[in-house]
Known about the structure:
Elements: H1 13-27, H2 41-65, H3 73-96, E1 117-119, E2 125-127, H4 128-133
Antiparallel strand pairs: 1-2
Amino acid sequence: MPETNPSHKPGNILLWIGLIVIVLAVLSNFLYYLNMPQAIIPWINLLLPLIGLYLLIIGVKRAFKQPQVYSGKIWGSIVTVVAVAFLSLSIYGAIHARDLPPSKGAPRVGQKAPDFTLTDTNGQKVSLSQLLSSPVGNSPRPKAVLLVFYRGYW
C-alpha cells in the first residue's frame, strides 16, 4: 500500500486558470485581425479579463485564508503580479493605440476637401468637383457630398 504524504497540499488550480484566462484576454486583442463577427470581440475583450481577475482573487484568498488546505501563497502572489502586469499592458495598449500623430496633409473639420477622383459602385471614375457641379435628378446642384468608405474584405 503506497504511503501518502500528510503535508502535501493540493494545488490551487484557480490561480493557474486565472493566469491562463488573463493571458487569453491579452491575446484576444488580436481577434480583430481574424475574419469573425466584429460585434462580439469587444465583449470577449471585456469579459475575459474580468473572469481571469475574479479567478485570481478567489485563488489568492484561498491561499492566504486556508494555507493549511491550499498551497500557493508565494506562487499566488507571483502569478497575481504577472497577471496585473499583463492587464496593465493590455489597458495601456488599448488606450494609447489611438494616440497616432495627426496627418499634416489631412483636411481639418470645416475645411474644404481637395479635389479627388474615385471609382463609384458602377466602376465609373467620379471626381469631387463633378459631383458638386452637376445637378442630381430635378434638384439643383448639391451643396455637399457624403463619402462612405466600407471597411471589410472585398
